[in-house]
Amino acid sequence: MPRMASRFRINKLVVIGVGLIGGSFALALKRARAVKHVVGVGRTRRNLAAALKLKVIDEAQEHPARAVGDADLVLLATPVGQMAAVMAAIAPHLPPKAVVTDAGSTKRDVIACARRFLGGHFPRFVPAHPIAGTEMSGATAAFRELYRDRYVIVTPQRETSAGAVKLVRSAWEACGARVVQLDAREHDAILAAVSHLPHVIAFALVNALARRPNPKRLFGFSGRGLRDTARIAGSPGEMWAGICVANRDALLAALQDYESELEQARAAIENGDVEALKLMFEQARRAREKWLVKKN
Question: Among candidates 142, 124, 119, 122, which has minimal Cα distance to 15?
Fold first, then answer.
Protein backbone atom coordinates (compact mmCIF):
# COMPACT_ATOMS: atom_id res chain seq x y z
CA MET A 1 0.00 0.00 0.00
CA PRO A 2 1.15 3.58 -0.56
CA ARG A 3 3.00 5.24 2.28
CA MET A 4 1.07 7.55 4.64
CA ALA A 5 -2.30 6.28 3.39
CA SER A 6 -3.72 5.77 6.91
CA ARG A 7 -2.39 9.05 8.41
CA PHE A 8 -2.88 11.65 5.73
CA ARG A 9 -5.97 13.14 4.11
CA ILE A 10 -6.70 16.15 1.90
CA ASN A 11 -10.24 17.50 2.00
CA LYS A 12 -10.10 19.41 -1.29
CA LEU A 13 -7.49 18.90 -4.01
CA VAL A 14 -7.48 21.13 -7.09
CA VAL A 15 -5.63 19.77 -10.11
CA ILE A 16 -5.00 22.41 -12.76
CA GLY A 17 -4.14 20.44 -15.88
CA VAL A 18 -5.88 17.06 -15.78
CA GLY A 19 -3.56 15.07 -18.00
CA LEU A 20 -1.22 12.14 -17.43
CA ILE A 21 0.62 13.80 -14.53
CA GLY A 22 -2.21 15.61 -12.77
CA GLY A 23 -4.72 12.84 -13.39
CA SER A 24 -2.40 10.12 -12.13
CA PHE A 25 -1.73 12.18 -8.97
CA ALA A 26 -5.47 12.38 -8.29
CA LEU A 27 -6.03 8.67 -8.97
CA ALA A 28 -3.13 7.63 -6.74
CA LEU A 29 -4.41 9.75 -3.85
CA LYS A 30 -7.90 8.34 -4.33
CA ARG A 31 -6.54 4.80 -4.23
CA ALA A 32 -4.74 5.65 -0.97
CA ARG A 33 -7.95 7.20 0.42
CA ALA A 34 -5.89 10.31 1.02
CA VAL A 35 -8.26 12.80 -0.65
CA LYS A 36 -11.95 13.55 -0.16
CA HIS A 37 -12.81 15.71 -3.17
CA VAL A 38 -10.92 16.43 -6.39
CA VAL A 39 -11.64 19.42 -8.62
CA GLY A 40 -10.13 19.28 -12.07
CA VAL A 41 -9.38 22.36 -14.17
CA GLY A 42 -8.69 22.17 -17.89
CA ARG A 43 -8.87 24.03 -21.18
CA THR A 44 -11.12 21.58 -23.05
CA ARG A 45 -14.54 20.32 -22.05
CA ARG A 46 -13.90 17.03 -23.80
CA ASN A 47 -10.89 16.20 -21.62
CA LEU A 48 -12.69 17.27 -18.44
CA ALA A 49 -15.70 15.13 -19.43
CA ALA A 50 -13.38 12.15 -19.86
CA ALA A 51 -11.81 12.83 -16.47
CA LEU A 52 -15.25 12.86 -14.84
CA LYS A 53 -16.35 9.70 -16.61
CA LEU A 54 -13.20 7.86 -15.55
CA LYS A 55 -13.58 9.18 -11.97
CA VAL A 56 -10.19 10.87 -12.14
CA ILE A 57 -11.91 13.96 -10.73
CA ASP A 58 -15.16 14.58 -8.85
CA GLU A 59 -15.88 18.05 -10.20
CA ALA A 60 -14.87 19.90 -13.36
CA GLN A 61 -14.10 23.60 -13.67
CA GLU A 62 -12.85 25.57 -16.65
CA HIS A 63 -11.67 28.61 -14.67
CA PRO A 64 -8.76 28.20 -12.22
CA ALA A 65 -9.76 31.20 -10.10
CA ARG A 66 -13.20 29.69 -9.41
CA ALA A 67 -11.77 26.31 -8.51
CA VAL A 68 -9.30 27.14 -5.75
CA GLY A 69 -11.70 28.42 -3.10
CA ASP A 70 -11.40 26.32 0.09
CA ALA A 71 -8.61 24.25 -1.47
CA ASP A 72 -6.17 22.47 0.81
CA LEU A 73 -3.74 21.59 -1.98
CA VAL A 74 -3.44 22.95 -5.52
CA LEU A 75 -1.35 21.05 -8.05
CA LEU A 76 -0.24 22.97 -11.13
CA ALA A 77 0.20 20.28 -13.77
CA THR A 78 0.15 22.49 -16.85
CA PRO A 79 3.05 22.95 -19.29
CA VAL A 80 5.68 25.20 -17.72
CA GLY A 81 4.97 27.92 -20.26
CA GLN A 82 1.46 28.32 -18.82
CA MET A 83 2.51 28.56 -15.16
CA ALA A 84 2.75 32.36 -15.01
CA ALA A 85 -0.78 32.92 -16.32
CA VAL A 86 -2.25 30.29 -14.02
CA MET A 87 -0.46 31.64 -10.95
CA ALA A 88 -1.60 35.18 -11.72
CA ALA A 89 -5.19 33.97 -12.10
CA ILE A 90 -5.38 32.00 -8.85
CA ALA A 91 -3.30 34.20 -6.53
CA PRO A 92 -6.12 36.60 -5.48
CA HIS A 93 -8.45 33.68 -4.78
CA LEU A 94 -6.26 31.29 -2.80
CA PRO A 95 -7.42 30.71 0.78
CA PRO A 96 -4.74 31.30 3.45
CA LYS A 97 -4.54 27.58 4.27
CA ALA A 98 -3.93 26.44 0.70
CA VAL A 99 -0.62 24.89 -0.29
CA VAL A 100 0.36 25.23 -3.96
CA THR A 101 2.77 22.90 -5.71
CA ASP A 102 3.68 22.10 -9.29
CA ALA A 103 4.89 19.19 -11.39
CA GLY A 104 6.99 21.12 -13.88
CA SER A 105 10.09 19.61 -15.46
CA THR A 106 12.04 22.84 -14.85
CA LYS A 107 12.32 24.57 -11.52
CA ARG A 108 14.18 27.89 -11.61
CA ASP A 109 11.75 29.48 -14.06
CA VAL A 110 8.70 28.18 -12.19
CA ILE A 111 10.08 29.47 -8.89
CA ALA A 112 10.65 32.88 -10.49
CA CYS A 113 7.04 32.92 -11.67
CA ALA A 114 5.80 31.98 -8.21
CA ARG A 115 7.83 34.77 -6.58
CA ARG A 116 6.37 37.25 -9.03
CA PHE A 117 2.73 36.18 -9.15
CA LEU A 118 1.88 34.40 -5.89
CA GLY A 119 2.97 37.33 -3.72
CA GLY A 120 2.30 36.74 -0.04
CA HIS A 121 1.34 33.16 -0.77
CA PHE A 122 4.85 32.29 -1.97
CA PRO A 123 5.90 30.69 1.36
CA ARG A 124 3.16 28.11 0.82
CA PHE A 125 4.39 27.22 -2.66
CA VAL A 126 6.46 24.01 -2.86
CA PRO A 127 8.24 23.48 -6.20
CA ALA A 128 8.24 19.81 -7.16
CA HIS A 129 8.86 17.49 -10.10
CA PRO A 130 7.81 13.83 -10.36
CA ILE A 131 10.33 11.82 -12.39
CA ALA A 132 7.67 9.76 -14.11
CA GLY A 133 5.68 9.83 -17.29
CA THR A 134 4.93 8.26 -20.62
CA GLU A 135 4.58 9.63 -24.14
CA MET A 136 0.77 9.66 -23.72
CA SER A 137 -1.27 12.69 -22.71
CA GLY A 138 -4.73 13.69 -21.53
CA ALA A 139 -6.99 12.39 -18.78
CA THR A 140 -7.43 9.03 -20.50
CA ALA A 141 -3.67 8.41 -20.15
CA ALA A 142 -3.73 8.75 -16.34
CA PHE A 143 -3.22 5.70 -14.16
CA ARG A 144 -2.83 5.35 -10.42
CA GLU A 145 0.44 3.37 -10.43
CA LEU A 146 2.45 5.98 -12.35
CA TYR A 147 4.36 7.20 -9.28
CA ARG A 148 4.87 3.90 -7.48
CA ASP A 149 8.57 3.72 -6.47
CA ARG A 150 9.45 6.71 -8.66
CA TYR A 151 11.39 9.74 -7.47
CA VAL A 152 9.75 13.09 -6.85
CA ILE A 153 12.16 16.00 -6.44
CA VAL A 154 11.18 18.96 -4.27
CA THR A 155 13.14 22.23 -4.38
CA PRO A 156 11.84 24.39 -1.51
CA GLN A 157 13.22 27.88 -1.04
CA ARG A 158 14.46 29.54 2.13
CA GLU A 159 11.02 31.15 2.62
CA THR A 160 9.06 27.95 2.08
CA SER A 161 6.93 26.89 5.05
CA ALA A 162 8.02 23.65 6.67
CA GLY A 163 4.36 22.70 7.03
CA ALA A 164 3.78 23.21 3.30
CA VAL A 165 6.77 20.99 2.47
CA LYS A 166 5.46 18.32 4.84
CA LEU A 167 2.03 18.37 3.18
CA VAL A 168 3.45 18.04 -0.33
CA ARG A 169 5.90 15.34 0.74
CA SER A 170 3.08 13.40 2.40
CA ALA A 171 0.89 13.67 -0.70
CA TRP A 172 3.58 12.24 -2.98
CA GLU A 173 4.43 9.52 -0.48
CA ALA A 174 0.75 8.58 -0.38
CA CYS A 175 1.06 8.10 -4.16
CA GLY A 176 3.85 5.60 -3.51
CA ALA A 177 6.67 7.93 -4.58
CA ARG A 178 10.13 8.47 -3.09
CA VAL A 179 10.62 12.14 -2.26
CA VAL A 180 14.08 13.73 -2.38
CA GLN A 181 15.18 17.35 -2.02
CA LEU A 182 17.56 19.18 -4.38
CA ASP A 183 18.69 22.70 -5.14
CA ALA A 184 16.69 24.09 -8.08
CA ARG A 185 19.79 24.81 -10.17
CA GLU A 186 21.10 21.27 -9.67
CA HIS A 187 17.70 19.87 -10.56
CA ASP A 188 17.62 21.78 -13.85
CA ALA A 189 21.15 20.73 -14.79
CA ILE A 190 20.45 17.06 -14.09
CA LEU A 191 17.12 16.99 -15.92
CA ALA A 192 18.59 18.81 -18.91
CA ALA A 193 21.04 15.94 -19.34
CA VAL A 194 18.86 12.92 -18.55
CA SER A 195 15.42 14.01 -19.74
CA HIS A 196 15.36 17.14 -21.88
CA LEU A 197 18.34 16.14 -24.05
CA PRO A 198 16.96 12.64 -24.84
CA HIS A 199 13.66 14.20 -25.92
CA VAL A 200 15.40 16.65 -28.24
CA ILE A 201 17.43 13.76 -29.71
CA ALA A 202 14.31 11.64 -30.26
CA PHE A 203 12.40 14.47 -31.95
CA ALA A 204 15.41 15.32 -34.16
CA LEU A 205 15.97 11.68 -35.14
CA VAL A 206 12.37 11.14 -36.22
CA ASN A 207 12.36 14.40 -38.17
CA ALA A 208 15.64 13.51 -39.91
CA LEU A 209 14.25 10.16 -41.01
CA ALA A 210 10.86 11.61 -41.99
CA ARG A 211 12.54 14.11 -44.34
CA ARG A 212 14.42 11.45 -46.28
CA PRO A 213 13.01 10.06 -49.56
CA ASN A 214 10.14 7.59 -49.11
CA PRO A 215 9.84 7.79 -45.28
CA LYS A 216 6.95 5.32 -45.30
CA ARG A 217 9.21 2.60 -46.67
CA LEU A 218 12.02 3.67 -44.36
CA PHE A 219 9.93 3.49 -41.20
CA GLY A 220 8.30 0.30 -42.44
CA PHE A 221 11.60 -1.54 -42.11
CA SER A 222 12.42 -0.13 -38.68
CA GLY A 223 13.00 -2.53 -35.82
CA ARG A 224 12.80 -2.32 -32.08
CA GLY A 225 15.97 -0.24 -31.83
CA LEU A 226 14.44 2.74 -33.61
CA ARG A 227 11.08 2.30 -31.96
CA ASP A 228 12.63 2.27 -28.47
CA THR A 229 14.75 5.31 -29.25
CA ALA A 230 11.91 7.23 -30.87
CA ARG A 231 9.17 6.36 -28.35
CA ILE A 232 9.42 9.66 -26.48
CA ALA A 233 9.04 11.60 -29.73
CA GLY A 234 5.35 10.87 -29.22
CA SER A 235 5.31 13.31 -26.30
CA PRO A 236 3.30 16.56 -26.56
CA GLY A 237 5.20 19.13 -28.61
CA GLU A 238 3.79 22.19 -26.79
CA MET A 239 4.95 20.91 -23.43
CA TRP A 240 8.47 20.01 -24.57
CA ALA A 241 9.01 23.21 -26.53
CA GLY A 242 8.27 25.14 -23.35
CA ILE A 243 10.61 22.97 -21.29
CA CYS A 244 13.49 23.39 -23.73
CA VAL A 245 13.20 27.17 -23.79
CA ALA A 246 12.72 27.43 -20.02
CA ASN A 247 15.86 25.38 -19.36
CA ARG A 248 17.86 26.64 -22.34
CA ASP A 249 21.20 27.28 -20.61
CA ALA A 250 21.48 23.85 -19.02
CA LEU A 251 20.10 22.15 -22.13
CA LEU A 252 22.55 23.91 -24.43
CA ALA A 253 25.43 22.72 -22.24
CA ALA A 254 24.10 19.15 -22.43
CA LEU A 255 23.70 19.45 -26.20
CA GLN A 256 27.29 20.61 -26.54
CA ASP A 257 28.55 17.53 -24.70
CA TYR A 258 26.39 15.29 -26.89
CA GLU A 259 27.55 16.98 -30.09
CA SER A 260 31.16 16.40 -29.00
CA GLU A 261 30.46 12.67 -28.68
CA LEU A 262 28.83 12.62 -32.12
CA GLU A 263 31.83 14.36 -33.64
CA GLN A 264 34.14 11.74 -32.17
CA ALA A 265 31.97 8.98 -33.62
CA ARG A 266 31.84 10.72 -37.01
CA ALA A 267 35.63 11.09 -37.10
CA ALA A 268 36.17 7.44 -36.19
CA ILE A 269 33.73 6.29 -38.87
CA GLU A 270 35.28 8.55 -41.52
CA ASN A 271 38.77 7.26 -40.65
CA GLY A 272 37.67 3.63 -40.51
CA ASP A 273 38.98 3.55 -36.93
CA VAL A 274 37.43 0.34 -35.65
CA GLU A 275 39.38 0.43 -32.38
CA ALA A 276 38.17 3.93 -31.52
CA LEU A 277 34.58 2.89 -32.19
CA LYS A 278 34.96 -0.29 -30.16
CA LEU A 279 36.32 1.72 -27.23
CA MET A 280 33.51 4.26 -27.44
CA PHE A 281 30.80 1.60 -27.66
CA GLU A 282 32.32 -0.52 -24.90
CA GLN A 283 32.54 2.47 -22.56
CA ALA A 284 28.87 3.22 -23.22
CA ARG A 285 27.88 -0.42 -22.67
CA ARG A 286 29.70 -0.54 -19.33
CA ALA A 287 28.20 2.77 -18.21
CA ARG A 288 24.71 1.56 -19.10
CA GLU A 289 25.18 -1.68 -17.18
CA LYS A 290 26.57 0.18 -14.16
CA TRP A 291 23.98 2.95 -13.92
CA LEU A 292 20.87 2.05 -15.93
CA VAL A 293 20.38 -1.71 -15.73
CA LYS A 294 18.56 -2.77 -12.57
CA LYS A 295 20.38 -5.43 -10.64
CA ASN A 296 18.45 -8.37 -9.26
Answer: 142
Dihedral sign, Cα of residue 245, residue 138, residue 144, residue 31 = positive
Q: Examine the domain organization and report whether 244 and 148 are in the same domain.
A: no
Count of Cβ atoms closer than 10 Å to residue 260 Cβ? 10
Reported as a single tens digit per residue, the pLDDT across 102-141 is: 999 999 999 999 999 999 999 999 999 999 977 788 899 9
Closest C-alpha to 127, from 72, 185, 85, 175: 185
Q: Which of 182, 213, 237 represents a domain boundary (last residue)?
A: 182
Residues 48 and 164 in one domain: yes
CA distance 182 to 187: 6
Contact between 141 and 232 under an 8 Å Cβ cutoff? The reply is no
pTM of the predicted structure, to 2 decimals: 0.89
